[in-house]
């Protein structure tokens, strides 16, 4: 596997770069305004004529141990013995999410499929339904990782590249095929729960109305105190731990928006009636330790092989909490994976990964997910 990486702050800067013209895959993570520049995709296609070009807008770009904003990170990969394929789906509404996930996997099914990497619109999708669709027909031993595109802290619109110019309401899925590829994946949070668990008594999909028969928004504001005046952005600092009825573990859910008139909150994934929710708050050291744990879980899955490429998808909420310390979680991952691993990724509106190799993929919020690739 041969990997080269570039960082630019202007699309015009591509003129001065020598991208590898034999790349099989070009990953593009960057600010929405740059990805929507009409000159970007034609320039990338000219530079990498044979590569599959995929990526998304972000809430921050990861390049090695650096976290950047308002830029583009390009990662070109030439595989030694792995084949890649890309498919895309368009979302007319969030109700299409599960069907889109099922359709994407169906198109990618094939001999020696090893892994699927997904980049989805971050606002027009129901992430929980998308993940349920993705895993519905996934072959045994194959996992899905990836994330939901971001738009900084603006939550205005997100875009995805799927071997075509960046577009909203789109999902890209990349299939990796071949016996030489080794893949590791994992996801760890690091948030602390507080307050009582409350039962979700009224919800519609990813819209939450009532907890224990009371307005969820009112309860949430009570706990936030003075932070309630800054909703919905302050909600990124206080996600919910969701204990699903069919799982021994919990997932974390972040609020994407509130509706004062309807007294409800919209989350990145489903809020099923009957599940129990509990508030969470940040613990600085545990957030960094969580990122390191995700990397350690990856190394244990590679059968002794050294990771060559690591795709990191972390949550915008972690970035807002860690602030100047944000690079500590990336540095922790890099230290575990070793100097031979090239790190690329982004800060997202939702992360897709299993907790470990032995669990199914889920939609997460407020986690650091790590996917590592190595070829024999």
UniProtKB/TrEMBL annotation:
SMART domains: FIST, FIST_C. Residues 216-355 form the FIST C-domain domain. It comes from the Bacteria. Transmembrane segments: none annotated. Pfam families: FIST, FIST_C. Residues 22-215 form the FIST domain. InterPro entries: FIST_C (IPR019494), FIST_domain_N (IPR013702). This is Uncharacterized conserved protein, contains FIST_N domain. It comes from Pseudoduganella namucuonensis.
């Amino acid at each position: 596997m041969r990997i080269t990486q570039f960082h630019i702050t202007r699309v015009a800067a591509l003129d001065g770069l020598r991208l590898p013209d034999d790349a099989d895959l070009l990953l593009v993570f960057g600010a929405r305004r740059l990805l929507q520049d009409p000159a970007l995709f034609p320039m990338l296609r000219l530079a990498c004529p044979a590569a599959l070009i995929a990526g998304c807008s972000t809430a921050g770009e990861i390049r090695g141990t650096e976290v950047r904003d308002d830029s583009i990170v390009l990662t070109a990969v030439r595989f030694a013995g792995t084949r890649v394929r890309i498919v895309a789906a368009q979302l007319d509404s969030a109700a299409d999410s599960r069907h889109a996930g099922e359709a994407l996997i169906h198109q990618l099914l094939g001999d020696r499929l090893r892994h699927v990497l997904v980049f989805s619109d971050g606002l027009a999708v129901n992430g929980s339904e998308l993940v349920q669709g993705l895993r519905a027909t996934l072959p045994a031993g194959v996992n899905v990782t990836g994330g939901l595109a971001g738009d900084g802290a603006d939550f205005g619109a997100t875009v995805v590249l799927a071997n075509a110019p960046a577009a909203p309401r789109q999902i890209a899925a990349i299939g990796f095929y071949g016996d030489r590829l080794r893949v590791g994946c994992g996801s760890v949070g690091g948030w602390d729960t507080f307050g009582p668990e409350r039962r979700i008594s009224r919800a519609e999909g990813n819209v939450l109305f009532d907890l224990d028969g009371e307005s969820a928004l009112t309860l949430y504001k009570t706990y936030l105190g003075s932070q309630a005046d800054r909703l919905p952005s302050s909600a990124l600092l206080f996600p919910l731990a969701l204990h699903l009825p069919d799982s021994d573990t919990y997932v974390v859910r972040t609020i994407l928006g509130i509706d004062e008139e309807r007294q409800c909150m919209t989350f990145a994934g489903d809020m099923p009636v009957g599940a129990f929710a509990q508030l969470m708050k940040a613990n600085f050291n545990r957030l960094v330790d969580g990122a390191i744990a995700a990397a350690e879980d990856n190394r244990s899955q590679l059968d002794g092989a050294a990771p060559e490429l690591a795709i990191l998808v972390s949550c915008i909420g972690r970035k807002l909490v860690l602030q100047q310390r944000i690079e500590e979680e990336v540095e922790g991952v890099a230290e575990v994976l070793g100097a031979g691993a090239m790190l690329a990724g982004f800060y997202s509106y939702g992360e897709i990964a299993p907790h470990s190799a032995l669990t199914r993929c889920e939609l997460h919020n407020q986690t650091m997910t790590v996917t590592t690739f190595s070829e024999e």
